[in-house]
Amino acid sequence: MNDKIKKIANQSLQNEAISREDALHLMQIDGDEIYTLFYWANQIRLRYFDHSVKVCSIVSAKQGRCTEDCRFCSQSAHYHTGIEEFPVIDTNKIVGVANCAEKTGSSSLGIVTSGYSISNPEDLDKICKSIKAIVENTHIQPHGSFGMLTKEMAKALVKCGLKRLNHNLETSERFFPNICSTHSFVDRVNTIRIAKEAGLEVCSGAIFGIGEGVEDRIDLAFTLKNLSVDVIPLNFLHPISGTPLGNCTPLMPMEALKIISIFRFVLPDKEIKIAGGRESSLRDLQSWMFYAGANSTMIGNYLTTKGRKVEEDLQMIKDLKLEVSDENRSSV
Ligand code: SF4
């Protein structure tokens, strides 16, 4: 078995596509061989990214009252989760968060709004002003997540300086109807295509621990590869009381780490970012995310849940002798 892992790893090290069958084979690994899997995932990470890791932050810029029914989400109006709700926040507030993110080493700030899409021209205008203000007042990149985009919205966002859109596919096309009934997987893919056509970089990934199977995880990895997304954020369910998945048990640390490794094998040279839920799924093994193949992580708080202290994450990176990349920062 160890020889087979090495053989598949050698393909990833040469940036040759591995087969779905081989990825499924890696997903079945258990027992001591899981350490061999991590070893090779780490070798692949080192081959493409050396000791450099990226860190980024997000700000919840419009929260709650979402018309959609994503079964894991605290912001859906279909569930009673007791979160704070607010309309699009002011530019000053967003610039304040961007300044803090810049000081702590983030290379970008993601402006995130709840909802199916940007619901009116006034909100689009406010979002555009904030993006422009980040460009003018900080050295970090403005990124954002705004639900579905039309071509016109994408153009407007590019014009004011947006660099990257986050739009997660969440899970495989097959499993998607089990987690959302108000829009489809195809709708989500469509927004990714619109964003790419408009010249935006795309960050699109998944959430695990929502009842999906092993094949769903693999199929999503290959879909993201085929769509040539730039960054793949991996989230792990942090069960929120009041949502249909509120009583689920978070994934066990080794299972979460194995998923990270297999995404590294399938997408060897892409930025793999560990995002929400790492605290509850990885527990004491959070620093292992890099050894399992990730080269990027979100720091600070998430949208409606708290993350670890930023200082703890930065210390973890330093202790591992990794270096925070400043690649996305402008020099002016
Ligand atoms: S994940 Fe996004 S679209 Fe789905 S309910 Fe939450 S805010 Fe709405």
Polypeptide structure, described:
The chain is α/β, with parallel strands linked by helices and 332 residues long. It has one domain (2-324): Aldolase class I (TIM Barrel, Alpha-Beta Barrel). The protein is built from twelve helices and ten strands. The chain has helices at 2-13, 20-27, 33-49, 91-103, 121-137, 151-159, 185-197, 214-226, 253-266, 278-282, 288-291, 310-319, and strands at residues 52-62, 108-113, 141-145, 164-166, 201-203, 206-208, 231-236, 271-274, 296-298, 323-324. Strands 1, 2, 3, 4, 5, 6, 7, 8, 9 and 10 form a ten-stranded parallel beta sheet that branches. Strand 6, helix 8 (214-226) and strand 7 (231-236) form a beta-alpha-beta unit. Helix 2 (20-27) crosses helix 8 and helix 3 (33-49) packs across helix 9 (253-266). The radius of gyration is 19 Å and the shape is globular. The termini are far apart. The site of iron/sulfur cluster has 8 residues, from loops.
What's the quaternary structure here? single chain
Q: What is the CATH topology assignment?
A: TIM Barrel
Low-confidence stretches: none
Morphology:
globular
Q: What value does the Rg take, in angstroms?
A: 19 Å
Give a short account of the largest sheet: 10 strands, parallel
Give the SSE layout.
Elements: H1 2-13, H2 20-27, H3 33-49, E1 52-62, H4 91-103, E2 108-113, H5 121-137, E3 141-145, H6 151-159, E4 164-166, H7 185-197, E5 201-203, E6 206-208, H8 214-226, E7 231-236, H9 253-266, E8 271-274, H10 278-282, H11 288-291, E9 296-298, H12 310-319, E10 323-324
Parallel strand pairs: 1-2, 1-9, 1-10, 2-3, 3-4, 4-5, 6-7, 7-8, 8-9
Bound molecules: iron/sulfur cluster (SF4).
